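SEVERITY: medium
COMPONENT: batch folding queue
REPORTER: lab tech (J.R.)

DESCRIPTION
The queue accepted two submissions in a row. Attaching both inputs and their returned structure tokens so the on-call engineer can compare them side by side.

ATTACHMENT 1
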Amino acid sequence: MELEQQSKVNFIPCVRWVKKGMAKCNPEKVQLNKEELVRIINQTKAGLRIAEAEDGGESSMVTENANDEYNFEKYDEEDGNNAEQLLGISSLAEIPAEAEDHFSDSDDSEKEDDVIKPEDNLILAGRVEGDASILEVYVYNEAEESLYVHHDFLLPAFPLCIEWLDHEAGHPPGNYCAIGSMSPIIEVWDLDIINCLEPAFKLGRKPSRKKGLSGIGHTDAVLDLSWNKNYDHILASGSVDKSVLLWDLDQGEPATTINAFNDKVQCLEWHKLEAQTLLAGSCDQTVKVFDCRSPENHQTWQVSGETERIAWNPLEPFSFFAATSTGMVHYFDCRQGQVWSINAHEKEVTGLTISGQCPGLFLTASSDGLVKIWDSAESTQPNLVYEKDFSMGLVHCLQLCPDLPFVVAAGGDNKSNNFTVFDLQNIDVVKHRFESRSLVQLVSQETPK
């Protein structure tokens, strides 16, 4: 019965590719013995109990509004130990003596699977499995046709969004992952460290009456993150609390707060070239473009439903896509307004990814289980090229690889098939549609190691 309880939830809410050459070839490995692990677990559980007591039992780590998409409300009602469940440590209260074999002090970093090659891509996947929330780091190598989990991190709350970045104050460019979750606190993990139990740094702070500390940052779940590759010390975040924060990573605090929306901010993305320009979408059925030098001055467009996903068109710098809860996809030109709109899905659009190399290629995914491949280059309205149910259940997310123009990673909620990587060139109709199209090579702002 206990095993059945733990395995009934298993899904991937968010994925993110990491470009080739961004990771260390030989990541550092933290060595923990059994006693150290037990001590850390006990300290963490004690800290959670203190925090819950201070909150009066009403933890802000979980919000009803953010839960709806993932059906967490019923899941949370089944057991009162929410804090320990969110951290995934409720089953680690005692480690049996026979588990000693799993805590090795030997250095096995030279094992072949531990080495990350320059031609490898990483894929970051947030996973919720039973009581545990996990960040999985996959290695994908197209030439070798290999895909495997290289290492993972145990997270303190359900991951809702992830963003790669290379910036930590006072350090040379690195390999980091920022995670937005049911908690208002953003955690940034060093992907070049294996077996790490704590993030490299955090953004935000809950208020504490006992310590006399005021809160910093968001007051509710963080729904999306976007790192500014042009100003690499700036990270944008959108939240259930209706705000957009621009974090100064060097100071560890918000430099700018934008309160221009009337509902949850579900999605945002920095412009690829204009460092000051931020696109954001909300459940108030609007999309806004901000000049963050004076964010009170912004452009606003209405869309047909809650804004679920947005994306700049990397090959048309004035244009962007917005996908909604009604299944619509809108395409806007900042200079002239809406260019076209299509009824892409019968249910809400949960995934949207635009090719930065193949003109006209974009993909959508939905809670109807379908992934659709579109071509917007050769007519005034996009043409549906192909659609498929990948048997992933509700498709939560998908993203095209930045290095391989036709390779896609996707996550869903089918417990036995919730993560997949597929090559569009293996689909005949897609290959024939795009094989003669000249690919564009964009200049990258990231510096390989």
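ATTACHMENT 2
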Amino acid sequence: MPEEKVPIYISKTLYERIKREVEESQGEFKNVEEFIEFVLREVLKEETEEPAYTPEEEEEIKRRLRSLGYL
């Protein structure tokens, strides 16, 4: 069963810009809606990704940078 959709309103200028991106994507995206869903999913995925370093690793990096005179 397809996911339920809800309307989202964006400016006509932004819509036209996205439409050009879709047309230039050489079939990667079928339409503006698909492009917008892709971008939003990517942004949300980035927010939930693990930090690159653990707090302990960050402290070690800071300690090393301090010892080298960078901090």
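NOTES FROM REPORTER
The two ends are 55 Å apart (CA to CA).
No errors were logged for either attachment.
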